[in-house]
Amino acid sequence: MSGLVAELESLAPTMAPDAVLTDPDRMAGYRWDRANDPTAGTPVAVVRVSSTEDVQAVVRLAARHRVPIVTRGAGTSLSGGSTAADGCVVISTERMRRIEVDPLTRTCRTEPGLFNAEVKAAAAAHGLWYPPDPSSFEICSIGGNIATNAGGLCCVKYGVTTDYVLGMTVVLADGTVVELGGPRIKDVAGLSLTKLFVGSEGTLGIVTEVVLRLLPAQRPPSTLVATFGSLTDATGAVCEMTRTMRPSMLEFMDQASINAVEDMTRMGLDRSAAALLVIQSDEPAEFALAELEAISEICSRYRASEVFHTDDPQEGEAFVAARRAAIPALERRGSLLLEDVGVPIPQLSDLVDGIAAISANRGVDIAVVAHAGDGNTHPLIVFDPSDTEQVERAQAAYGEVMELAIGLGGTITGEHGVGRLKKAWLPDQLGEEAMELNRRIKQALDPDGILNPGVIF
Amino acid sequence: MSGLVAELESLAPTMAPDAVLTDPDRMAGYRWDRANDPTAGTPVAVVRVSSTEDVQAVVRLAARHRVPIVTRGAGTSLSGGSTAADGCVVISTERMRRIEVDPLTRTCRTEPGLFNAEVKAAAAAHGLWYPPDPSSFEICSIGGNIATNAGGLCCVKYGVTTDYVLGMTVVLADGTVVELGGPRIKDVAGLSLTKLFVGSEGTLGIVTEVVLRLLPAQRPPSTLVATFGSLTDATGAVCEMTRTMRPSMLEFMDQASINAVEDMTRMGLDRSAAALLVIQSDEPAEFALAELEAISEICSRYRASEVFHTDDPQEGEAFVAARRAAIPALERRGSLLLEDVGVPIPQLSDLVDGIAAISANRGVDIAVVAHAGDGNTHPLIVFDPSDTEQVERAQAAYGEVMELAIGLGGTITGEHGVGRLKKAWLPDQLGEEAMELNRRIKQALDPDGILNPGVIF
């Protein structure tokens, strides 16, 4: 191991200044991500790479020593996908920040270290739009988005990260550099390997550059906010809407999240509502109006207590911001165990009811926000970390929510990734045959298992 | 081998009547696809499976005997993707025709044997839409579409097959049945294996069921047709349009295809035009008008000789049908070698010019139609199969067109697949590292190489 560190330090002069960190104090910030896994390990070194060549050099050394590599973007993983393993080398992509937008092909070529919001901004400077929008878009890296096949609020109409990845440069477990795809909307030459690496959570290779597809700028959306006296009415309305319409956003907050956000923002949300929906349409003006009127009619039919509509994008954004604020607002109430379960839309009501039952049964607060139009929910289990008995109940509830989702034909993770935290439940969802197929691919690409060990597998 | 045939025949009673064919006359129709590869082999048996269990039983036998398996949908491959190998078992999915549309999740679950048009029709019966639309949509199977990650005319706005595949049942090379994904828009649990099988051309597994994402019915499109006196003007206009707009169709025909179609249809196309664009917008009425007006303005700026606009969907469809008729129309003039090369949009002009140069240099006619908005072109090399010297020149041109595309940063196949016909050029496009990665995945999933041997690899 010390041999590896010495070799990494001898690489340092070929890299940008201060690239190789071995001081425990300086490495501390690279051990955890936002999942705060208490079992996080201690790396032997952190390398802040600046190029594909840097990554290749580090991977070659680590492979020779069979030392684990944990790749890290901005460290915002909510499932422990970028948590350090003991004795690993952390490859941090924070310095890989080049981006080049090509308006002619409506694509951009970007390195993994940029924040999602920076990719959006670079595209916007050319009148273009990169749709995927995790709630953490201002602080999460595009590399992490690729690793988890991240989603967000736009997915109900505009799909997820993989729908925008046309090509990439990836460093394999043995240090081989491979170029896949390119700025071509259609390309079926060879196997769909680009798509395989998207969502692989750093377990198959290290993505050092991506080609992303961009769209023309989104039209300013109109917004509708509706409150409901019952959860069933709210989820019923969602189900009715998604059958025939394509709103550009369809978000859900339950009473606990409404109140947490209201505590923080004092923006006048109805604390008595059982649920609130934030819905947007980005159709051209009159058509947005027509779409939201039809949606308003559905809300009324499902006994909405209040329906508010605005075509002022700023005013609409305030409600979207309220929805995004749910996680920070709930963090004020205690520690969070953050779920990411999804179900087919018609099962949304059963999922939300089932979560309420788990909450009552385990005696822990579970607030629910959701990308309702995708059936992707984020139950947020709030607990007091100093109360070990409560921690246990929270952890029991965490597993039960995933089991509930699996039982409803759903998924344990819609957009955050399996990471370290959810892998115990993965076989229950996938089944033995699909697990074995996952392992076969992993074995083929990383036979020594050095890439992000403990994640997924 | 004869042992295998006897065992297959002993399986027959467990299957629907007349499932196992071994009579050479009855098997003849299963040897070739639309690529008409003269090197097509002779199968030892054709099994017309009706279920996943049938496929599993056949694969287990074939695997035990290490006999190749060629899976066949409707046999419309243009690249030899469903051409029989000598001594193989052909698994024909023509009888696997169940489909179930679920309007609540806006998905359908379908077996591979349905035609693309039948999937569209089943969706339409519920007011829903399955977008991918290869020109052969009335005669190509959805299973073949999955195998090639098929595209079509809608892709410029609505993406390709993989964008609509949410899950599948797949039989692996050893007969293991695996369920992947499901009717969930977001699901990142485990590796993105569904996406890996899409476009794998029957070389990694046999897809026996898929879950497809559907959209609400498309709005009736408005259509604009423009003719140009020069190819460069036409491709320049395309490039200008795709920078800022999202037409729902953007198709190109050159003079040779215009004339071939006019010979067949007598619909009054301008025979003197160097190029014709067929463009559609499916925005809401006035916005379609505005979009097509802006496009019309671009056409004028690029010296269009004539611009015609209609919001009558029937009238518009006549021009789309003309574009689709190009291949049958050119087939009247001789045999065709059908290309599928794509380039980044700004290189479209260089590609079209380069093809003209190859045509002149080799003294063979090459007509070009294109899904211009994707940069995906179909140069059609017309030759007299009885003239061996001309056949050689046509074949030389076939390779040169692919080399041209690769040199322009493009692909040898945008939507038809590599098949048997293009695999010699695949390493030039992908490079040695990506080829090796393709082989590693193939080796992991089909170590004995029994699935569609001779295709891609």
UniProtKB/TrEMBL annotation, chains A, B:
UniProt EC number: 1.1.3.15
Classification via Gene3D superfamilies: 3.30.465.10, 3.30.70.2740, Vanillyl-alcohol Oxidase, Chain A, domain 4
Cofactors that this protein relies on: FAD
Coiled-coil ranges from the UniProt annotation: none
Keywords per UniProt: FAD, Flavoprotein, Oxidoreductase
Domain FAD-binding PCMH-type, first and last residues per copy: 39-217
Family of this protein: Belongs to the FAD-binding oxidoreductase/transferase type 4 family.
Molecular function GO labels: (S)-2-hydroxy-acid oxidase activity; FAD binding
Enzymatic class: oxidoreductase
Transmembrane segments: none
InterPro entries with a match to the protein in the record: FAD-bd_oxidored_4_C (IPR004113), FAD-bd_PCMH (IPR016166), FAD-bd_PCMH-like_sf (IPR036318), FAD-bd_PCMH_sub2 (IPR016169), FAD-linked_Oxase-like_C (IPR016164), FAD-linked_OxidoTrans_Type4 (IPR051914), Oxid_FAD_bind_N (IPR006094), Vanillyl_alc_oxidase_C-sub2 (IPR016171)
Organism the protein comes from: Nocardioides albus
Protein name, per record: Glycolate oxidase
SUPFAM superfamilies in the cross-refs: FAD-binding/transporter-associated domain-like, FAD-linked oxidases, C-terminal domain
Superkingdom assignment: Bacteria
PROSITE patterns documented for this protein: FAD_PCMH (PS51387)
